[in-house]
Specification:
Strand 1 and strand 2 form a beta hairpin. Helix 3 runs antiparallel to helix 4. The chain folds into 2 domains: about 20-95, no CATH class; about 95-150. The protein is built from 7 helices and 3 strands; from the N terminus they run H-H-H-H-H-E-E-H-E-H. By secondary structure, the chain is mainly alpha-helical. The longest helix has 16 residues, at about 25-40.
Length: about 160
């Protein structure tokens, strides 16, 4: 079940050497599996949220819901599993992007997501602020439309699936 040479080497497992071009698609799934194993007896109430995240990641259907579930789990578990959440944060940043526009009919601009904020609303606000600055728009950036999506798979990332 372990994902490193030494099953007890959690530091190797939780370290993240991914980049946007070399990020393994299964990396995030592995992290959720480990957290599920850890929480099964400690906090059964968190298992449902972890299973929801695992299912949503497998379907790659609702990127915003994935980020919302991640933020909730992060709020509740990050103090205990900081390295796991660091790795998951990096993985999500490599796998997803934000598409921002002024509204329907406007071409969206693509931005990387940065999960420095601990809530989904904080992530959205930081992206809107960055978009507003790049557009040299007045501070009504809250009207900008932000949607999250998984990045298109590249040939490079397909070859790195392990």
């Amino acid at each position: 079940m372990m994902f490193s040479e030494d099953a007890n080497d959690s530091e190797s497992f939780y370290s993240c050497h991914c980049t946007a071009d070399s990020c393994r698609e299964r990396c995030g799934h592995e992290i959720v599996d480990v957290l599920l194993h850890e929480q099964a007896e400690r906090a059964p109430d968190l298992v449902d949220s972890l299973l929801d995240l695992k299912s949503a990641l497998a379907q790659r259907s609702d990127a915003e819901q994935i980020l919302e579930t991640f933020c909730e789990l992060r709020r509740r578990l990050e103090k205990r599993y900081y390295l796991a959440f660091y790795r998951m944060r990096r993985w999500l940043e490599n796998q997803m992007e934000a598409q921002v526009s002024r509204g329907r009919g406007y071409a969206p601009r693509v931005y990387p997501i940065r999960l420095k904020a601990r809530t989904l609303s904080g992530v959205i606000e930081s992206i809107r602020a960055e978009f507003g600055e790049s557009e040299k728009s007045p501070p009504q950036y809250s009207f900008f439309r932000v949607e999250f999506a998984f990045r298109a798979k590249t040939r490079t990332s397909r070859g790195l699936l392990a």
